[in-house]
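Hi Y.,

Following your request, here is the sequence exactly as I used it, all 92 residues.
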Amino acid sequence: MTVLSLPTWPPSPKIIKDSGGDIRDPGPVLDLGAREFEDNHILALASAACADIIASNDTDLTQLSPWQGRPIIRPLDFVARYINAPRPRGHG
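Below is the corresponding structure, written out as C-alpha cells. Let me know if you'd prefer a different format.
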C-alpha cells in the first residue's frame, strides 16, 4: 500500500506508475447521501475506484458506514486493521 501526499497536482505519470496507483475521475458528483455535499466527492471517488474501504476522520462520513457495502472507518482504525491483518506466507 502506498499513500501519497503530493505538493502539486496532477502528479506526474512516473509518480502514478511508481505508486501502483491510478487517477480516477468519478464524473459528475451527485447527492450520494452525505450530509455535507462536498463529502459526496469522497463517496463518488470511492465508488469510481471500487474501493473496499474508506478511511476518514470526518464524522459525517463515518456515520454513513457502511456505505454501499464499504466500511467507513477512522484512519487509526484502518492502520490497526492493516497491521493486524494476516499476511500471506513469505510476506513481511
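Confidence is low (pLDDT under 50) at residues 1-6.

Thanks again,
Q.
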